[in-house]
Amino acid sequence: MRNLFAFIYRFRAFLLFVxxxxxxxYMVVRYNTYQGAAFFNSASTYVGRxxxxxxxxxxxxxxxxxxxxxxRDNAAMREELLxxxxxxxxxxxxxxxxxxxxxxxxxxxxxxxxxxxRVINNSIRRTNNYLTLSIGSADGIxxxxxxxxxxxxxxxxxxxxxxxxxxxxxxxxxxxxSAKIKKDNTMGTIKWTGGDYRKAMLDYIPLHIKPVVxxxxxxxxxxxxxxxxxxxxxxxxxxxxxxxxxxxxxVELSVDxxxxxxxxxxxxxxxxxxxxxxxxxxxxxxxx
Amino acid sequence: xxxxxxxxxxxxxxxxxxxxxxxxxxxxLMDSLVLYSTAFCFIYVAFLLFLPIYTNRTxxxxxxxxxxFSVDIFYDTMGIHAGASVLLAYLRAPxxxxxxxxxxYDTNDTVxxxxxxxxxxxxxxxxxxxxxxxFVFFMEVFTLREAWFTLVKIIxxxxxTTVGMLIIQLLFFSVKRANR
Lengths: 288, 180
Known about the structure:
The structure holds two protein chains of two kinds. By secondary structure, chain A is an alpha+beta fold. Chain A has a domain of 83 residues: Rod shape-determining protein MreC, domain 2 (Thrombin, subunit H, Beta Barrel). In chain A, strand 11 and strand 12 form a beta hairpin. The longest helix of chain A is centred in the first third of the chain and has 28 residues. Chain A is globular. By secondary structure, chain B is an all-alpha fold. Chain B has one domain. Helices cover 68% and strands 0% of the residues of chain B. Chain B starts with 8 loop residues before the first helix and ends with a helix. At the A-B interface, helix 2, helix 3 and strand 3 of A face helix 3, helix 4 and helix 6 of B.
């Protein structure tokens, strides 16, 4: 027994080294597949506060850009509103509402709820990029919710603490987003391949479709994370490699990740019900 | 190697201040100073490299884990920087042995470019930073896919960090302090 202790004491540095490395590798593997409450990441209270102070300083220098972005966003909203109002004037079904018309699609009755939030930490140049938002479980944010900006898809909530949340960015090597080509509803999957933060790949578009440069890519809405029809980007290159049964399509993302300052977290009140139903039916969860 | 760890107030204070300064420098400033999306500066390893030459080996492993873990928390890269820093901390003693001057280290030798000389410092910093960055970038991608791009990233980042460390040495480690 004494020899054993002597042995451990003699090689204590090496044993400690091996122990710590095993711990680190375990943390890497676990964090990659982990979703839930935040303990040790940028959403934890103290770290979040530091990042918030930092961004309140750096945001000051970008106020002009942020302002013009919000103004443009507002203009787009007003345009949409005017169009709706005109359509309403033309539409006469409102008069029938009490008599003949019955709502046939219950999904229409529960729209998505958007929570606005400031981005307090953002990375775009790493292999796996994350954002930190100054919004948390106190505001009703839960892991797995989608995150969008005014002009497109941003990512998905990974962990939450009381006042902060981390987001797996679209610019993450393991992030998959279910998308479709807007003009003909062909399903595909958006995946970021690393490198340029303005470009992603659209995969699984079969060869009988004719995608053209300039086509808009939107979310499919088949997964519960994002509403249908949120813009992802536009096709910037289409290639057909000889040994593949799918196109290799390059998509230019509509969101400028380098300029993100405000985003919206998408809450879908019916999500839980739908996921439970699909799970009970034995349908495996689709990629995001 | 002599196990020597002076737990005097001087050691404690200067190194705690250095720890906080280097982690703050890393997450607040260096995080946004990335050159051409390929060269990253992980200046926080300077904390481990600038520890006294005769620091206890178990202590330095624990300090390596702590500093790497602090950076991981801000970077959302659980375990990657901690693992790399522990590796660096473990290999620091063998590298120091390898680079022992002809007449050995003095007890009050510190990692100081004016005291130890250009060649010694550059060799010491470059080898350890290269090991650290190799670990970080390969753990990040987890595959050998696009290994060329990763290798370019490792080389450029190592040079970047080494230059950053050199600047810190020349600015803040005075000749006078070395002669004391």
